[in-house]
């Protein structure tokens, strides 16, 4: 988080009593789960689509058993493994846990042209970041070509979205959100936008 732009004095400046409360939400603040629908959805998952560990334990079934009787939403209902959740970790042996969190793909190599483009946005303040995301990435005499410029458009669109969230006086990035919030506010413009062109090619 040290690389994130720092907010300048006077930008989104609020009094202490207006600061966001980032404490844990109570269980009752979370959405209730339709247990019947969740159970039916789990039954519909083919065994061939589930992750089976070398010990024979099936990851999705373990998560299902863990949260099947919960009344309120938990990340396990989406079969998400939270590596910082001690309860989830306790469901597996040490050997199983190491196998489960092993990075099988590794980090992809960052192409030089993307690294160069991203470096343009390495600003120290939110004001500087706002200025650069509003600066056209193409010169006036250059016509847009998806083959050459799609990555540049994706980078600027994503960073403009993040800049807007940083500037938002409601401080959404400091709040707890459900998965749907991230789907709407971030994933569409920052991740789906990136993959859209890759899928076509």
Written overview of the protein:
By secondary structure, the chain is mainly alpha-helical. 45% of the residues lie in helices and 0% in strands. The protein contains 8 helices and no strands. Helix 6 (126-133) packs antiparallel against helix 7 (146-167) and helix 7 (146-167) runs antiparallel to helix 8. Mean pLDDT is 83; it is low at 1-23. Residues 1-49 are annotated as: Disordered.
SSE blueprint and pairings:
Elements lengths: L34 H9 L15 H9 L18 H4 L4 H8 L10 H8 L6 H8 L12 H22 L11 H22 L1
How would you concisely characterize the structure shown here?
This protein is mainly α. It has helices spanning 35-43, 59-67, 86-89, 94-101, 112-119, 126-133, 146-167, 179-200.
Q: How many domain units?
A: 2
**Could you report the average pLDDT, rounded to the nearest whole number?**
83
H/E topology pattern: HHHHHHHH
Structural class: mainly alpha
Question: What is the count of β-strands?
Answer: 0
Percent of residues in beta strands?
under 5%
Reported for the largest beta sheet, the result is: none
Q: How helix-rich are the residues, as a percent range?
A: 40-55%
Count the DSSP helices: 8
Give the N-to-C terminal Cα separation: 33 Å
Low-pLDDT runs of 5+ residues are 1-23
Sum up the overall morphology in one term. elongated
Q: Measured on Cα atoms, how large is the radius of gyration?
A: 21 Å
């Amino acid at each position: 988080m040290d690389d994130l732009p720092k907010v300048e004095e006077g930008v989104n400046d609020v009094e202490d009593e207006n600061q966001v409360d980032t404490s844990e939400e109570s269980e009752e603040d979370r959405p209730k789960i339709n247990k019947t629908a969740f159970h039916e959805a789990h039954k519909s998952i083919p065994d061939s689509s589930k992750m089976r560990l070398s010990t024979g334990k099936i990851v999705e079934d373990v998560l299902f058993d863990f949260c099947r009787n919960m009344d309120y939403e938990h990340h396990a209902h989406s079969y998400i493994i939270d590596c910082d959740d001690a309860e989830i970790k306790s469901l597996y042996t040490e050997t199983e846990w190491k196998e489960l969190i092993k990075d099988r793909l590794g980090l992809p190599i960052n192409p030089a042209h993307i690294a160069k483009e991203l470096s343009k946005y390495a600003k120290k303040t939110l004001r500087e970041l706002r200025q650069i995301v509003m600066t056209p990435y193409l010169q006036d005499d250059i016509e847009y070509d998806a083959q050459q410029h799609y990555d540049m458009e994706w980078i600027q669109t994503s960073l403009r979205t993040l800049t807007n969230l940083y500037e938002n006086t409601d401080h959404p990035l400091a709040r707890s959100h459900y998965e749907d919030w991230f789907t709407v506010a971030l994933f569409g413009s920052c991740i789906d936008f990136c993959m859209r062109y890759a899928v076509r090619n």
